[in-house]
Design goal:
With about 425 residues, the chain is an alpha+beta fold. It has three domains: about 100 residues, no CATH class; about 150 residues, no CATH class; about 130 residues. Helix content is about 55%, strand content about 15%. It has a six-stranded antiparallel beta sheet with strand order 6-7-8-4-9-10, with helices on both faces. Strand 2 and strand 3 form a beta hairpin. Helix 2 packs across helix 4, helix 4 runs antiparallel to helix 5 and helix 11 packs antiparallel against helix 12. It is globular and about 80 Å long.
């Protein structure tokens, strides 16, 4: 059965059997459009969700451009426009509207740019740095004016530019991230842009060697306003949209030219940029990317147990395969031979990873909740160090299987160097 037929039949079922005129307090959904009010029952909502899943599965190009909520809203539009038609013409009308919708979803792509305030990132003597697909700008008055002029949008709510700039600085917002996305509707474009920004911030979080990693993208609670500013590059419309929950208080991360040069020369910033821009991808690179994602989630989480578990997931993402059964042993073994340069160092790393993974098991299986700050800091340092080490290894090896082969060679004496 074709996707067109599935969508049409499901919408027709909803209109015929699961849609009633007027508002119903017992219905899971009621709404007014086109001057009419209708209610949809549980079966209607189930069919809508099922239809969305089919569209997302069979049309990846649509999944890339639109959110599930947007697709549901567009199908509800069809229900509104068709539910008044008599049975004799209903089939033809629903088919025509479904064809029109699928064509529009397949073809519609618009370009968006988002200006996203960043909390606690300070660039000293630097106007701009680029991480992956995101540009970070120092929020001095001159740059602030330039960005608003270039992208034709307004950041903040005060009347004068100087007042708007001062308001942001007062709330520890010293940088703006500029991210672009192509999508069919704003929510999807925003999700894509926020993911790009978070991925870039996760790279910066790797370079912040403090216990509190201080780079966030949302406004603090005290500001209490929408925080992400956008412009549609095709229609030229602009505005603001809410970006998510506010961050906790963190120490700032300072970047100057010396630190940036060090990040580039000694700590593989250019390689991380390739990873984010997807200009190169191997199985090992994909594992590193997933580990960085979970590292970022763990670093931002202020709840000790959740932070610890997310950091362990980062470790598993980096060093485990799905088929590995003895997780603690494989993790400890691989970490020891990747980081350790002699027998003593490997034994210490093996012991450390084993102890940290035992704590993870106690959390998951026994409800342990008293995690020491020392153990969390050890785990942060371990995951960060392993990510940098694996990044270097990924320039020579393609997969975790290749890493295992090198480890076997070291174990059985055919080479004495590390991985």
């Amino acid at each position: 059965m074709k996707l067109l037929d599935i969508v049409k039949e499901n919408l027709k079922k909803i209109i015929t059997n699961h849609c009633t005129p007027g508002e119903s307090k017992s219905a899971p959904w009621s709404g007014m459009r086109m001057g009419r009010t209708i209610s949809l029952d549980d079966k209607a909502m189930q069919l809508l969700s099922e239809t969305v899943r089919n569209i997302m599965k069979w049309r990846p190009v649509i999944k890339e451009k639109f959110t599930e909520d947007y697709l549901k809203d567009r199908m509800i539009d069809i229900i509104f426009s068709c539910h008044v038609f008599p049975p004799s013409t209903l089939d033809t009308k629903v088919l025509k509207e479904t064809q029109k919708l699928l064509r529009r979803l397949r073809r519609t792509t618009e370009s968006w740019v988002f200006l996203i305030p960043i909390v606690n990132l300070k660039m000293i003597g630097l106007k701009k740095i680029s991480i992956g697909e995101v540009d970070f700008y120092d929020l001095n008055p001159k740059t602030f004016k330039y960005l608003e002029s270039k992208f034709g949008t307004r950041v903040g709510y005060q009347k004068l530019l100087t007042e708007r700039h001062s308001e942001l600085i007062k709330h520890s917002i010293n940088a703006l991230a500029v991210a672009k996305a192509a999508a069919g509707e704003i929510q999807k474009a925003k999700n894509i842009s926020l993911f790009k920004v978070e991925s870039s911030l996760n790279i910066l979080r790797l370079y912040n060697f403090m216990s509190d990693i201080g780079i966030q993208r949302e406004f603090p609670t005290t500001l209490g306003r929408e925080d992400i500013y956008f412009r549609n590059l095709r229609t030229k419309t602009c505005g603001s949209t809410h970006g998510g929950p506010p961050p906790s208080s963190f120490f700032p991360f300072l970047i100057d030219k010396q630190k940036l040069d060090l990040m580039r020369k000694r700590f593989q910033l250019s390689t991380f940029n390739k990873l984010l821009r997807r200009t190169w991808s191997t199985k090992l690179a994909q594992k590193i990317s997933m580990a960085i994602h979970w590292y970022g989630l763990g670093i931002k989480d202020k709840h000790e147990v959740d932070r610890f578990v997310k950091l362990i997931i980062a470790l598993e993402s980096l060093l485990l395969r799905q088929k590995d059964r003895l997780k603690k042993q494989f993790l400890a073994d691989r970490a020891a031979f990747i980081l350790g340069r002699d027998k003593k160092a490997r034994e210490e790393i093996y012991k450390l990873v084993s102890e940290l993974y035992t704590i993870r098991s106690e959390i998951v299986h026994e409800g342990k909740h008293d995690i020491s700050e020392e153990d969390i800091l050890k785990l942060i340092a371990l995951v960060r160090t392993l990510i940098f080490a694996m990044m270097k290894i990924s320039l020579r090896l393609q997969s975790l299987e290749d890493v295992d082969k090198r480890i076997e060679e070291i174990k059985f004496g055919s080479q004495i160097r590390g991985v």
